[in-house]
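tool_call: predict_structure(chain=1)
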Amino acid sequence: MRRVSIIGAGVVGTAMGYLLKNAGYSVAGIASKTLRSAKRARDFIGAGEASTDLKAIAKKADIVFITTSDDAIGKVCMRMASEGAFNPESIVFHTCGALSSEILSPARDAGAYVASFHPLQSLASVNEAVKNLIGSYFCIEGDAVALATAREIIAVLKGKEIELKVDKKPLYHAGASVASNFLVATVGFGLKLFEAAGINRQVALKALLPLIKGTVKNIENLGIPSALTGPISRGDTGVVEDHLRVISKERPELLRPYAELGRQTVNLALEKGTLKRLEAERIISLFDKYI
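tool_result:
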């Protein structure tokens, strides 16, 4: 039975520990900055020693997940390597989407095999993460031996693999951030416009959720750009100008984000083929006029 240690007791580390334990891996320990957070993760996982001693916990395992904050990964890895925390030929993963496996080079220099192991999933809480990680895509890159272990873990999680070159990691993560984080921001933007129209924020969110879910379902079933609908897709310049006119009057600070999102929508509508080039030029000229 392979032994796993978790360094960093946040959402990702706790959820991964729980899922790996249930998949038959032995969770040897969980280390965190505070004993309280390590114990909380240990109690959720249902296995392992809780500690603030990173070296002692890492030494217990042949697979080490560093699931600290992204900014701390490099420092934590360097500190652990300098203290001799990694067993020879152990596997060391980090779960950051933006950073490559090279951030773990101190562990490699200490005799470990390293890779990045990023779940392409929105993980807002431990309970949601446990549900959402199963069947997700995982982006991996790094040493061949570590990648073989990564693929074993992906298989037990019933996931799918995306393998990337090291230097493409930031672009991949930017795309994930746009599709997930910016989606939340865009919904928040829509809520501001609903509030400007006199609709209570909570009511607005409840009203928008079926629309959002329907849009996601269309993306799943039809793909992009086929799932695109709305006035820009149809070339309704009059409706777009009405939007711009009322936003400029009621919430002028929201004109620029509306126009920038609109420009991206114009490009998709042209790709879809429902917007003619002349109509696109008219809509773009409206954006230029108002901002």
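agent: The chain has two domains: 3-164, 172-290. Proceeding to next step.
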